[in-house]
Amino acid sequence: MASVLALAGLGKDYGDRRAVDAVDLEIEAGTITGLLGPNGAGKTTTISMASGVVTPTRGTALVDGHDVWKQPRLAKRALGLVPQELALYDELTARQNLRYFGRIYGLGGAELASRIDWALGVAGLGDRASESVSQFSGGMKRRLNLAAGVLHKPKLLILDEPTVGVDPQSRNHVFETVKTLRDEGMTVLYTSHYMEEVEMLCDRVAIMDHGKLIAAGTIDELVATHGGKGLDIEIEGDLETARAAAIAAIEGTGATVKTISARRGNLEGVFLSLTGKALRDE
Amino acid sequence: MLGAAIQKDLLLLSRDRRALAMLFVMPVAFILVFGMFFKFGPDKGQRRSISVWHAPGDARGERLVENLKASESFAPIELPTAEAVRASVAKEDSIAGVIVPADFLAGANPVELVLDEGMSLQVRGPLQGSLTGLIVRALLGLPAPSPNEPAMVVVKTPPGIDRPMTNISAFQVTVPGNAVLFGFFIALSVAIGFTEERRSGTWRRSMAAPVSRATLLLAKLVPYSLVGLVQMAFLFGIGALGFGMQIAGSMLGLVLLSIAVVICATSLGLLLASLGRTEKQIGSIGPPVLLVMGMLGGSMFPRLAMPVFMQKVGLAIPHAWALDGYYALLVRPNTTVIDVLPQIGALLGFTVLFAVVGLSRFRFER
What we know:
Chain A is an alpha/beta fold and 282 residues long. Chain A has 10 helices and 10 strands. Chain A is 38% helix and 23% strand.
């Protein structure tokens, strides 16, 4: 498969401080790749260099085969960036925001109008298009932030922490949107702190720390290489009886149970189960 | 891109009441207030009270009272004693007083002009000068000056300078003064506009778009320049239609000078944006800098009334050049575009200077 994003030896220094060392990363078309790392690992600097926002000190970044710094127009047309900040004009309406961002990507006329309607649909904001963004909830702004990044239907979508500070419904909407876009052929680079998000969404994962790419591969590959082994069994019925039976059965095979612990479903699952997945913006 | 940016920034500005008030309402209020402060020429119908004492039957004193009455500026109030004259001035019942001693003798026993010597020179000078003239005429046995008497002194504008129009309204000066002062405040809007884009992340989003950095910069500067032009047109329009300001010289000159002012102010905005990282920093640097520039440049009071050293300092401020140009265009008939080319050139020079320093410090990737 062809690479939509190819980073080769990409690095950035700020004075004497090396923010990103030399990142090599290729992302195949039609996949979602998660970029994980703790705060200060260099994720945002890396995607900023890949999207032409920050000038690299070394290395190259190709988007859809075009060098971001030598052929910026071609490379950037193929790229959509959804910044971590809510990069919107609060005083403008959702439609006015999208119209401006569409126009800077060269869209106009009927095409722009239809893309705006499509993007508003993607964000689930079709009925709030004429409202000022300042009236929106955090979740609505996040979704509009995403819509502004996909308005021109880029080949590569870079999402920088797209679910920070949103309610579970909006987070779920973002997940569903990203998956749909991937299914329609868009390639996604997704940075997040949240492991469960990356595990749920991403086909491949790259992990950064201290400005270096320290691991990359599918989740299975990474777990096989770097993770431990274990079983996660979901019990229906009496937990204590089941636990005793499970230990006896396992030890009957000659294996030793070193630790066993009960796990309950997470709160987000309970919340979504009880409140449903429908968006509620009021 | 430019069209989209212009539309977006105009929409944003139209919803920013604070900025609209600063750019359009405040200057009109200042023009009105300053226009009422300053007055050029005789203050018809608003005579200033001058208390007078002279010995009964003293011919010089009586002539002085007649001269004051004949003037268009003063209204004499005769008081019974010299002490009453001094008390009247001290209590501010009259702006000045004149005591003509019965045994007047130049040098030994002169006429006393009772005046608060703590008055500003700009007020005291003309008052002392005109009263001294009337007193001396009375002492010499001359009546008040009249248009029919043979001229002893005649005022003539030297060749090379057009004669100013007669009956100059204060608004001929306060309209351009405040238009320039508040016109340069667009620099603050420009600088805050940049920091706001950075803070919200829209700058980062725009940087990722297929648009050159030069275009991005222009897309931020051009909309504010257009707003600045609208502001200047509005203020001079209000000046002409609402306050009776007249344009004595070339209309084209006025337009070109205003364009130069706006471009210069926008360029200053780029410089301010390069100096401050946050809106708070810009807010603390910008207004004091712009107010001091306005003061030194003569926006608040004429540079001619300043000490010579300060007048020279003013030449390092674009406001001073702009106001020199406006003064010629508004007050001196026959002023052409050519006459204000030096001022336009100076403003464009400041524009280049601000842009070069601003661009050298401006960080796209901050």
